[in-house]
Batch of 2 targets.
Target 1
Amino acid sequence: MSKIFCLILLLTITGCSLGSDQPCLDLGGHCQYDSNRCSGSYYSGKCAGSANRRCCIVAGDQPCIDLGGHCQDDSNRCGGSYYSGKCTGSANRRCCTRTAVEHDTGDCSNVKIISRDSWGARRPGSTSTIYTPVPDFFIHHTTGGACTSFSSCISQMKIIQDYHMDDANHRWADIGYSFLVGEDGKIYEGRGWDQVGAHTLGYNSRGLAASFMGNFETHAPNSAALNAVKALIQCGISKGKVSQSYALFGHRDVSSSACPGTALYNVIKTWARFKAHSP
Ligand SMILES: [Zn+2]
């Protein structure tokens, strides 16, 4: 918030403070009024606002601080990567680092799947287990920004998850797709192999879905992204998550949507098992 805007707010409401809590967050702490007990150590001069607002660093959070992170409730998104088992308290209180570290789920030897924790995903509001192996696999595009690097792809992932969870027209429990793919040739874990998604109305309980990040109406994704999704489907078969006799569909095959874009649709039409059975 700009200082000028903040000063204007100060005139009308109370509690608008100049400065920032970032120095405290950088130490792995949180700011609170020091009339409250801190179950670790207090530090002055690290928090915005009143001098009584001080930085509390919880002793048991040290493993997270050693990682260069801070502990927070994982219903919030993380600017870097999440780590479990580094913070005191509930299992939902997890360590969020400042920068993201690339972690593979290790699910597939033929393609890299960047884990939810790696891209700093928010905890889902709820989950529902899907019956596998699924008979159908659906292809989508996001119609949003394309990405060609780890950092630009994870920023897209956060934008899409926030949109699916917070936008008034969605308010879904989580990012809708099972997986997403960037033109960096990596798969990004969405709801993953075992959860019912919110991607293909009427078919979410019988199919998994991969969505290409970008808009592929007039041009197809690069070969790195296309090959990653082909490898993902093969990996799904080998893990028993996708039926060997699966049918591949574009979103438009089962809805009035233009998804996954004409140029991409023309590519997947040539892939194995395309519309191997009627939708
Ligand atoms: Zn779609």
Target 2
Amino acid sequence: MKLFKKMSIGVIALAALTACTPTVNQVEDHEQTVKNPSEETADHLQENNDENKKDSDQAAKNNNEEKKKLPTLAETITKGENGKDVVTNPNDILVVANKERRLPSDYIPDDLAEPNVPFTFEEDVPKKLMRKEAAAALESLFNQAEKENIHILAQSGYRSYETQQAIFAYNAKRYGSEEEANKVSAYPGESEHQTGLSMDITSSSAEYQLVEAFGETKEGRWVAENAHKFGYIVRYQKGKEQITGYQYEPWHLRYVGIEAASHIYKQNMTLEEYLQ
Ligand SMILES: [Zn+2]
């Protein structure tokens, strides 16, 4: 019993959550049915082209409307306990959690799955999990990297509120105050890992560590230049510390979808700026 009591509560929290590790299904094929044009008259083709043009105009219009409908940061918060802002859209692919905006303490993504990518460890633990869409996109990113002879490994994905709470409490005890603990760990609710949309990655060239030097490795550079094609951004950029509230973290990838990721990458923005 004594031995059990001595166990870190973080370990207990982790152990309690290891039961659920579904695997992501294969990414669905997006094959489309193609008509045989030889069976159609030129008139029909012209008509179809007009139709297609109308369709693409409509798609562009819808896209613009979609853009306009993006919730701004101010629209997605409410005052929680202690006057801290709590996000109202934790399930949104574009949710922003940071030092000013907490995730609800009871928020657990309902579609967590394990991406089929190499990890730096073997155990089946919750930190292998991500939301299904993000997990599938991560698989695509890793597959393309492998094709280009870039070897990356996943290190840390989903983290529950309770685990973050346990880590924070442990650090507060260890360092003497919450303030000190906050220098090395996020307050519960303020870690983006709770969204299930983030994954920390590393490589052998970075000695399997989550360190700034990863950004200078061949793997780190490849990821910075290509992640957006798969809907990922390097969330905490150099020179953007005042906006994100975090130091440069070349290893921390965040899924936002291809459209947002491409825009953010090309404009050298942060997620916060994209949603302002
Ligand atoms: Zn991270």
